[in-house]
Amino acid sequence: MDAYDPGTLPALLAGEPPYRLRQVRSWLARGIDDPAGMTDLPQELRERLGARLAPAPRVLRISTADGGLTRKVLLECGGGEAVESVLMLYPRTSGRAARATVCISTQAGCALGCPFCATGQAGFRRQLTVGEILRQVTVMQRLLAAGEAAVPGAVDHVTNVVFMGMGEPLANLDATVAAVRWLVDQAGLGLSARSITVSTVGLVPGIRRLTGLGLPITLAVSLHAPDDRLRDDLVPVNRQHPLAELLEACRGYRAATGRRLTFEYVLIDGVNAAMGQARALAALVGDMGCHVNLIPMNPTPAVPWTAPPVPAQRAFAGVLERAGVPTTIRRNRGGDIDAACGQLYASYAVASGKVLPAAVGAAERVSAVAADADRR
Ligand code: SAH
Ligand code: SF4
Questions:
Q1: At what angle do helices 130-145 and 18-29 cross, to 10 degrees?
Q2: Which domains does the chain show, CATH number per domain?
Q3: Does residue 120's CB lie within 6 angstroms of at least one atom of ligand 2?
Q4: From the candidates 148, 250, 341, 364, which is the catalytic residue?
Q5: Between 280 and 6, whose confidence is greater?
Q6: What is the mean pLDDT of residues 310-324?
Q7: Ligand 2: which atom is nearest the Cα of residue 235?
């Protein structure tokens, strides 16, 4: 059984005094999820829990980059899978409190096949359980509490969680919702909903379900193209949920939660980064109360695409800013340990010569659309 599934602990601890539940939850929130380490429980109870609960995913590797500000942890999950998560420390500055942000994965692989994405190129392997999703956070909580990730001016606990690692959170909806609930629950991690960001490729039914939760979590939507023609190729799920439907669901989310939306836009040279495309994007989202986060394309093994030069990135952002759309350009973290958030990838998939179905023919198809758009 999964300790983080909402019903598990109350069922296993039925008949025990109520404070036992609080004790076990408090251990989990501190990153101790092997009952053998829950030292204030009676031995008999530790053994009983140990026999019933799924073993905690094992830490296979911890790597460090950016002078200690970025850490990547590789966790071994059941069935021979491994998932990566990234801790990014932002020390205190004069204008902002210190933060410790964890970027987590919700699936091993992804079925949605966006051709620029290394996770999508490798295809779907399996859903992660709630415990496997949350363990990525608590393992970092434990590193921070133990002072193992200490850098000057940094915090000693996780302050923010972003669902931007491997997989599509809203394609593993029940587990994602349960994980979000645990993160905000006082008996879980007790984070504010505002410090949680769920990034989605735009699965409309999932956005509606999040809208119904009534939690003001930040919704980040991956747009990547200002029109359906190009988006059909860059984000194939656009064929099921085209832009008009997606933006309508986004407006509903904004109205229900009052939260400013984030739109993510991967900048790919010669594909979606022309000035006309910036103007079209500004026209599309200008009235939505949103912020645009431009992500320079991080090269992946299966397509020849790269980010535009920095001046072109700035010019693209300038068009949006002048149209009144607050815009930032994402700085990649952890590039030197292959851990840029959002591009987590089990490199063995490529190394072992797996076919990457989403990438086959994608570059040619998209180039044809882009060349056509240039001519018009
Ligand atoms: N499935 C979700 C969340 C995971 S990806 C989603 O698609 O939103 C998190 C972000 O990283 C998304 O905006 C995704 O489009 C972006 N991303 C994926 N591959 C990338 C690459 N090679 N370069 C830059 N950003 C990439
Ligand atoms: Fe999946 Fe997101 Fe990658 Fe698309 S960008 S393939 S939805 S992980």
A1: 70
A2: 1-56 (no CATH), 57-375 (3.20.20.70)
A3: yes
A4: 341
A5: 280
A6: 98
A7: 4
